[in-house]
Amino acid sequence: MRSAAKIGIITGVSIAVLAGGGYGAYSLMGSDSGSSGDKKPRTVVAEPPSADQAATGAKDFLAAWASGDIAKAASLTDDPAAATTALTAFKDQVKPSALTLTPAGPATPQAFASATGTPAPAKPTGAASATPSATATPGATDSPSAAATGPIGVLMGFKARAEFEGTSRAWDYNGFLGVVKMSDNTPAVHWAPSVIHPHLSGNETIATQQVFAPPSTVVDRNGKPLQGASLTPALMATLQDNAHKLLPPDPNKDKDAGSAVVITDPAGKTAADKLFTIVEPKPGQPFKVTIDNTLQAAAEKAMTDLGGKSGSIVAIEPSTGQVLAFANAPAAGQNRAFTGLLAPGSTMKIVTSTALLEAGLNPDSTVACPEKSSNPVAIPNDFPGAFPNNTLQQDFMVSCNTAFINQGLTSLKPETLSGTAKDVYGIGLEWKTGLPNADGKIPATPGSKDEQAMNYIGQGKVQMNPLAIASITATVQSGAFKQPILVAGLPQQQAARQISPDVAAKLRAMMNATAVGGTASQVMAGITDNAGAKTGSAEVQGASTTNSWFTGFRGNLAVAAEVQGGGHGVDAAGPAVASLLKSGNK
Q1: What's the whole-model pTM score?
Q2: Is residue 303's pLDDT more than 80?
C-alpha cells in the first residue's frame, strides 16, 4: 500500500494521464524524418539497449523534460502522443515553477517496488547480473501485477526536484523509467504513467489541488464525537476527502485550505494520494457525518455478537437517504457493508414482487407454490409439499422460490427485473455515498430461462450488499428512492421514476405480514408496529452453509444485514437487524 498521508481535497481541474501501450506495440516515425516516405517506422525491438544507450536515452529525455521542451522529450519515448499528453498535464496541472531532473544511473526492481509500494520481486534462481534490465516479451503491457519488476526496458533511476512559486519548499522524489531499443538502433524511454511519478498508474490524475487538514474531530449527526470500531480513521479520512470534492464550494472553508500535489482517481473509487504539501492548510474544523452514535453502537454490537463470523449491516433513514449506521465483522477489514458483492437470496423478492405488482398482480392473486419450478433446470423449495392455492402474499411470507420463478417467467420479460431495480430503486446508478461503494448488479438474461429463474430469487449472478438492500427497503417504506449518503448535502442520484403509492403500500403490507406471521416473525416479535421484513438465504457454491440475509423497516428506519455462512435469514442476520430496529431512529 502507498505510505503517503491522505488529507481532504477539493477537486481542481486535472487532465487524465494516459497509460502507455504494450512493449513492442509501437510503430513510430523518426523524430528527424521528413515526409512519411523518407523513413521506415521505428518500432521497439526485443533486444535491450546497451548500458551506454540506456544512460544516453534517460539523460536526453530528462534534460528535455526539465527544460520544458515537451515536444522533444515526447519524441524520445516510444509513444510520443501519450507522453505529450502526460507531460503537458504535469506542466499545466502540477505547475512547478522550476524542475530539476538528475540521472541516477541503473536502478533495481526492488527500488522501484519500494517506491510504488508493491511487493518486491523474487530474484530468479542463479541470477547474477549486476546491470539491472527488464526485457519483456513483445506485446507485454504495464499492469499492477508487473509493476514490481519495474518499467519495461533497462530500468534507470533519476532524482526529481520540483519548486513552486510562493514557497521555499521543494518537492524531492526518486523517479524511474525504462529505456528500450528501437529498430533504428536508438534508445527510447518506454512511456508509462509511472515515468511522471512511481505512484501514478492507469487513468489517475496528478495535479496541485486545494487540501484541508484532517478535522479536529469527526462528530455524529447530533454533534457528538463519532464512535465505532468499523468507522476506521482511514474510512473517515476518505469520507472527508470525497465530501470536499462532492459538496458545493464553500467560500468560508476555502480560506482554511492549503495546497498539495495529489494523485486522484476520477471515478472516486480509491482514496486520494497526497504526494507533497506545498502550503499547509489551517487546522481542521469538526466534520459532521450522518451517523447516529446510538444506532452505530447497536450495529457494532450486532456484528460482535456474530461470534467470529464475517458479516455487515447498514441502517438508513428512508425519508432522507442518510446512512445512520454501518458496521462490519471484522471491524478493521473490508467495508463489506458498502463494497461487498454477494447473492442476496430471497431479499431480492422485494424487487421481484415490485415487478409482478406493476405487471398487474395483487397480493391476493393466486400464485401456486409447486414443489419444483418450471424452468429447464427445475429448482425445488427448501420446504416440502405443494400449495396450489397460495396467494402472492402467502408466497412472499413463506418465501416460496417456485412461485416467484414460475410467475416471473410467465408475467415478466427477461429485462424487466433489472429495469425495475434501476428505474425504481436506483440500483446501478453509480451512487456517490461519500465512501467507495460497489453498485448492485442484476444482469439481464435474454436467452436463458434458468438464469432468469435465479434472478427472481436473488441467486445466480445477482450481487448486492447491505447498503443496496437497505436502500431498497427504505424506498418501499418511504415510497421514493433517496440515494444513500454519509454527509448531509451530498448530491443524490435520482431514480428514473417513483414507485406508485399503490404498489408501495402493497409491498409494505406484504412485508408486514411476513414480520407478523411469516418467516420473519420469530425475530420481529414485539416490533411489528409500522414495520415489515423479508428473510433471505443464499447458497454459495462449495459452501456447506448458506449465507444469511435479513432486511426490515420500522418507522423512519430501514436496516439490512448479511452474515457469511450464517444459515437461514432468521438465524444470524435477522437478530442483528432486529436489534437495530428495536433501538429505533432517535
Answers
A1: 0.67
A2: yes
